[in-house]
Amino acid sequence: QPELGKPQRNCYTLPGLDFSYGLYLQRTDGGVPEAIGSWDSIKPRSALARSMPRDFITMNRGALRAGYTTARQFNLYYKAKDICCKAEEYNHLQRSPPKLPADLTYGITPRPSTPMFDLLQHKYKELWMEQQRALMAAQRVAKKKV
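^ CFA77 protein, sequence as received from the core. Prediction below:
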């Protein structure tokens, strides 16, 4: 019950000074000698332990040479003759990435900017008018021939 005239306290009383927070783990509380002596090291995997991906290009060629044309026949061929990529083909890009020039820019080259001087002189209008005049003259010549 709260004391008369005072609000009710909404917190808990803290434990004494001899209380320690957290868990005591026997295995990891041995200090530096135990930490150094019990390192969990990861053993490196050998290259042969890793499974190589299937070489579908070679398997597709073999299936076509054998005369298989349907998807079911291709699947049966894949199960019968499972061909994996060779290690050097699989790691080709990881070992030596393709040689690219230093000034290579990825993507599409930008369009050249439109010269402002040509816009101010109405050069594009004049080019269009010349094309239209040439087209009309060609049509007149074709009409006279008919």
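Helices lie at 32-37, 56-65, 71-80, 87-90, 92-95, 116-120, 123-145.
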